[in-house]
Design a protein that fits this description.
Blueprint (H helix, E strand, L loop, with lengths): L2 H9 L8 H14 L14 H14 L4 E3 L3 H13 L5 E3 L4 H8 L9 H7 L6 E5 L7 E12 L3 E9 L5
Parallel strand pairs: 1-2
Antiparallel strand pairs: 3-4, 4-5
Helix pairs in contact: 1-2, 2-3, 3-4
């Protein structure tokens, strides 16, 4: 069986299909069960719940731009699963956080027009969603994810074209 077939086999006893959370955390636990970067549980207070908690952290980290963890095995397993499930979250150590954020947080400078710069990122490869004009909606909209956080917060541009306005 393949790795994912093992994961699916461990969930087939359930009456309802596994949701994303259950599937992911089972996949995380299965890495340990097949011997990949197993977590040793040296202290008497350590147990399988520790591994389950790591799987939960990894799952929730998948919904973020960065997953920051000290635990090397947690980082490695998360990278494996993020790769397997095509999750773009970047896995880093705490010491890397500042340098990673400096790459994406905008530094406001007076010698440039940040609005023009933000719109320069509005390209096909950065397009996330588009909404065409419809009978009920007279606005054509495009949503772009941009590689910077303007004002340390905004990293999306919504470009709207109003049907009845000349802008």
């Amino acid at each position: 069986m393949t790795y994912l077939e093992y994961v699916e086999a461990s969930l087939k006893h359930k009456k309802e299909p596994a949701n994303h959370y259950e599937y992911y955390t089972t996949a995380y636990l299965m890495l340990d069960m097949i011997g990949y970067k197993t977590d040793s549980l040296p202290k008497p207070t350590d147990n399988m719940q520790n591994i389950q908690t790591d799987g939960e952290h990894s799952f929730y980290g998948a919904y973020c731009d960065y997953f920051v963890a000290i635990d090397k095995k947690l980082r490695i397993k998360s990278k494996v699963l993020y790769n397997e499930f095509n999750i773009p979250t970047k896995v880093i150590e705490p010491k890397e956080l500042i340098s990673e954020l400096e790459k994406v947080i905008d530094q406001i400078r007076k010698d440039r027009n940040f609005i023009e710069e933000a719109f320069s990122f509005c390209t096909n490869e950065n397009l996330v969603e588009s909404f065409p004009i419809t009978e009920n909606n007279k606005i054509e909209m495009y949503v772009f994810k941009i590689p910077k956080f303007y004002f340390n917060f905004f990293n999306y541009v919504i470009y709207s074209i109003y049907l009845n306005k000349k802008v």
